[in-house]
Design brief:
By secondary structure, the chain is of the alpha/beta class. The chain contains 13 helices and 18 strands. Helix 6 crosses helix 7 and helix 6 packs across helix 12.
Length: 374
Amino acid sequence: MKMKAAVLRESGRRHPYTESLPLIIEEVELDPPSRGEVLVQIKAAGLCHSDLVAINGERPKPVPMVIGHEAAGIVVEVGPGVDEFEVGDHIVPAYVASCGRCDMCREGRPALCIPATKANAAGTMMDGSTRLHKNGERILHHSGVAAFAEYAVVSQNALVRIAKDIPFDQAALFGCAVVTGVGSVVNTAKVSPGQSIAVVGLGGVGLSALLAAIASGAGQVIAIDINDDKLKFARQMGAHEAFNATSDTCIDDVREATAGGADIAVETAGASQALDLAYKITRRGGTTVAAGMPGPEASITLSHLSLASEERCLKGSYMGSCVPSRDIPRYMGLFQDGKLPIDRLTSHRITMEELNESFDRMAEGSVVRQVMVL
């Protein structure tokens, strides 16, 4: 079938993207689903920092590629061997299509699935092939989803069925921002009621983490960002304290507010400075979680002595250490019960033609979550 999609043909073009135009809206061809795959009509797709780093070259992807990995849609066709989904199902894809057989999957860590990780790096489906092309040219899939398009062919292993009464523009956020942010607090940090939690970086992932901290009964929730408008919004969402990361007194202010440092500090900004800050505001015996995704050259320097003598814990969190088939329905249940007001995180609803302009806003750090609606 032929469809409209946003294609990235060159990684590394510079902001402003309304001038450099890294994403080109093109008519491309999409093959029907193969065995174990599903054709999905994309109804909404969120814009994520992981998309931005692919565009700006900080974490480059092979090209040409249809970008986008946070989405929601409707099943319109199922391939051979698909028995868990049927036409008309509303779904959210996870951006790691776990195989269920590798060591990581058998250990209950599908976000670290080895074959899926290799396929995502190559921009292919799990079998190494692609379903996208144009005039004989192969076009790659971003994270097995390729969501900035009218349709997508996705592995059934990546899909989670959702309730049909959840609006698509809200459901899409559960595919990345929510599972990553909420999971970093619940699964990776394993928050306990009464603990103090600081969140560094207040995009869609960070604010999801903040909401999870509140819903989990954290005794003190602290928001940290470089944007005062986001700090104000975090307070409106329920943060007890909010500090600007650019302040010379930020670390001291957090330590004073928490009587020595936060029990848990979650970094979601995808910047080395943010992780360094998160580590420095974590108390003795506390846990620092790195959930942001910077470029491969990003690094920080830690005190070996403090790590050992203060029994500090530094943990990575990819896709919120989640099991999508288990966690996405749980988090959606909390949303439906009013305990995770994810609907408040969308700052802009856009069309496909507005993607470049929208990534300009993201690069400027002036938005929380933007959602492309089809």
